[in-house]
Amino acid sequence: MKITKLFSLSLLLLFITNVKGQEFKLGKVSIAELEQKVHPKDSSAVAAILYKKGRTRIEYDVNNGFVTVAEVETRIKIYKKEGYDWANQNVWYYNQPDFKEKVNFSDAVTYNLVDGKIEKTKLKSEGVFDEVVDKFRGQKKITMPNVKEGSVIEFSYTIKSPNGQMIREWNFQTSIPVNYSEFSTYIPEYYVFNARQKGYAFPKKTEVTNQRSIVFTNKDRDSEYIHTKTTFSTSKVDYKETQTTYLAVDFPAMKEEAYVNNIDNYTSSIQHELSLTKFPQAEVKMYSVDWESVVHTIYKDIGSELNKTGYFEEDLKKKLEGKNTSEERILVVLDHVKANVKWNEYLGYSCDNGVKKAYKEKTGNIADINLMLTAMLRYAGLTANPVLVSTRSNGISIFPNRTAFNYVIAAVETPNGSILLDASDKFSTPNILPLRALNWYGRLIRKDGTSEEVDLMPKKSSNDVVFMSYSIDPEGKVTGKTRRQCTDYNAMITRKNINGFKEEEYLEKLENSNNKIEISDYSRTNEKELLLPTMETYSFTGNNLCDVIGGKIYVNPMLFFTNEKNPFKQDVREYPVDFGFPFTDKYNITLQIPEGFTTEVLPAPAIINMEDNLGSFRFNIAPAGNSLQIIIQHQINEAIVSTEKYEMLKEYYKTMIAKQTEKIVLKRI
């Protein structure tokens, strides 16, 4: 598969090098573009980006110094009704007191072909909206008018930022095909950025150096005269500017696949992170050259919050009395923070309210909560440090930079390894983090400025164990009892599924998701005892759980627990399979054979073992008097499975599901 990818990439790059500098201009939509019914290389595409050009300049403003101006123009073809969403565009911007950006849309027009002629419909003011996203950001939105199947829409926008320190990420791929994408940066010699590309398809890159200059107007007042005289003069500063252009031609749509944590991790894009500034007659200022400098910069931001005291000691001291082991102290501190400070749904590794105010007001962002947690753990005599994390929705931190992270947790270092903690989720426990934080690797940072990579992915298997016994009457009605026990991450998921629902609402949801069974005698234990497995027991009846044909009964032994569809259908897997955590599903089932019946067909026992101990499947049915004993186990031992193992995993699931869906056949004696 690697050879195939390299060959495909070589062809793509060869094609790109032959592309001449195409001239795309807003307002020059062709009849051919409007007549096109389907995308020539992807007939399933609901829309396509015909071209997208972006230019980001760091330029000098006489009033504000260096600022960043980004200009983007886009043309999109709509093929199907399902592509109408592409007529709604939005661009976010920072809206903070010390950092305000401005976004403006222009040249927004919808084109349609009417009686062989091009009809233009311009965007009016009522199609432009300005919305608040959160306390830090807003977004400018447009809804294009008169959009139909076959329409072409185009628009442009600018983003003006008040300094020269940020260049936005540029995506060369999205969920629809991209025919042409061009992105250029214009960076003065005073700024050094780290540029990193990600994804499987790479654009062609060219670089040139331009000579630029800044003209200053100087105002002088001469008071030697009776009347003050003002004179003006000019001076000029020359500098070099690096223009870098990235060109992508005919990049395919990003296709969703099962068990992908965030498809943006694999989308072709270019990211920039400010590394240093070196202005004339000023010291070089370092930002993100390597992880040490990144950590140093971040720790300066959060270190003061970790050192704040006098707001929790009295409360915590009482609770720590008599708790002598590290395990006991960790639980006391974790529970204390969870009980006293609730998450306000804001992310970040920098505090919002500050730990003291968050503790007093009982609410805060992720940093408020988990930096407070770290400080309390240190107070309890534990070796605790913050761990910077990028959440699943934020993507993977692929190179040293401050903006790669948007989250922070706590780690307690012990002789047996680090214990990871997050007090923002009421269902979390030591080493059981919220799923949003399970994103490959984090970075632990210490007081002395050192840091190290921390593997966030769980290694311990989370269990889901089902004990079920049921009987079938001659008409095919199934009556039975189930006990289900879940540990670790499976227990966390169960608690989240239960949380916020009244019991009758939860049971209705459970019944509907399990082939319309009817549940009675429901009970659950350990719902709030987080260190113990969750336990659910209930009786059930179902009239749609087996088939009666010609006097014979056909039944899947696992009933409503049967996996019927293989989630892995693609011939080639582009992205790693992310299960989130290792898991073991066990089923111990007793089937009571109805009186007057015997078994005609029993599925044969099966054992499947994947290479490298990736996982295994066990299936066995054994007669026991007038009943059948069925034992099934499905186990995956790695949270993340590489694409090299995809074919093996796909075949494993195919064989497992085929075995699970084999029917037991009961016939009359």
Describe the structure.
With 669 residues, this protein is α+β, with helices and mostly antiparallel strands. Helix content is 18%, strand content 42%. It contains 10 helices and 37 strands. An 8-stranded mixed β-sheet has the order 6-5-9-2-1-11-14-13. An 8-stranded mixed β-sheet has the order 26-27-25-24-31-35-34-33. The chain is globular and about 120 Å long. Mean pLDDT is 92; it is low at 1-21.
Task: Summarize this entry quickly.
With 669 residues, this protein is an alpha+beta fold.
SSE diagram, text form:
Layout: H1 2-17, H2 31-35, E1 47-61, E2 65-78, E3 88-96, E4 99-100, E5 102-114, E6 117-122, E7 128-132, E8 137-143, E9 152-161, E10 170-171, E11 178-188, E12 191-198, E13 204-222, E14 229-251, E15 269-277, E16 285-286, H3 291-307, H4 313-320, H5 326-340, E17 342-343, H6 355-361, E18 363-364, H7 366-379, E19 384-389, E20 407-414, E21 417-421, E22 441-445, E23 451-455, E24 462-472, E25 478-486, H8 488-498, H9 503-513, E26 518-525, E27 534-542, E28 546-549, E29 552-555, E30 577-578, E31 583-592, E32 597-601, E33 606-609, E34 615-624, E35 627-636, E36 640-641, H10 646-660, E37 664-668
Parallel strand pairs: 1-11, 17-18, 24-31
Antiparallel strand pairs: 1-2, 2-9, 3-4, 3-8, 5-6, 5-9, 7-8, 10-15, 11-14, 12-15, 13-14, 15-16, 19-20, 19-22, 20-21, 22-23, 24-25, 25-27, 26-27, 28-29, 29-37, 30-36, 31-35, 32-37, 33-34, 34-35
Helix pairs in contact: 3-7, 5-7, 6-7
